Amino acid sequence: MTTKEKAEFNDEFSEAEFFGFATSYLSEAFPNPQRVGCPPDSDLQRMAEQPVEARDAAASEHLTCCSLCFNRYMEILGTLRRRKAAGQ
Amino acid sequence: MASGEAPSSFRLNSADRHGRRIVPAVLAAAESVFPRALEYGTNLLGDPAVVANTLEEVAATVSQLVARRDPPGEPAPIRNLPGYVFRAFVRQVNRLKRKELAVLDAAIAGQTLAQRLADPSRQLEMKVLVDECLAQFDFTGRDMCWRRLGGFTWDEIGPLHGLSGHAAEVRFRNAVRAVKAKLAQSRKPLPPTAQTAQNEQLMPAMDGDDDERKS
Question: Between chain A's N and C termini, which has fewer beta carbons within 10 Å?
């Protein structure tokens, strides 16, 4: 990628826009009321604490198509982050 | 504690707005630098009342510092108290100004983002990009995305994947860049020659249809 292309990419790609949109989109677009394929809460907790590809790949992929699990995982990450910030 | 400042007629309160006491030596030092502080502070903060409050707060903080470092009978740790108070005041004013600018920037950025996200074509573009990213990212890329969405900083995300914060950010941006490049490639229009050929193939059929309808 040339310097000009890099500059164009940086102009076009706004992290705030990307993540702002992704949050609202993923938290609502995939309702899944029957909870099809949802991993147990403990799996999400474990993935949040220490992600391991061999163990967590399916759960991570499931979050892309289940708003309930996505929202729950965001809660777990938020709690984990606050706990780490508090030095616990 | 030598005072290098000319005496000032201005009087500050002996406690700041949080009720913290200002010791007499620091109060005198703050009052002596007040004209300079007022000029500097008003330029940046605008309101002289805010400047006076800020100077009192700084004086109260310096008083606490002096009390901690200057037990009775010990030599004074700060040789030029007015200069010390003024420098502390300048730092505090700069901090307040930075905070004010940061809040303003955030408000402007938020407004722009909201406006951009309200545009349906932009929404569709973002939806396609997010879908493609989540489909094409490997486990690490997706995990970075989840954590960023969960409010983690890059410095917190990097070490979980054996990277520095900066390396994690660069890796993520490169992954998004690759997805965008693929999307751009798939949206490339057909070359002009191919378009012409297509049109030529379609034209006779359309003419034929018309003839059939006429007959």
Answer: C
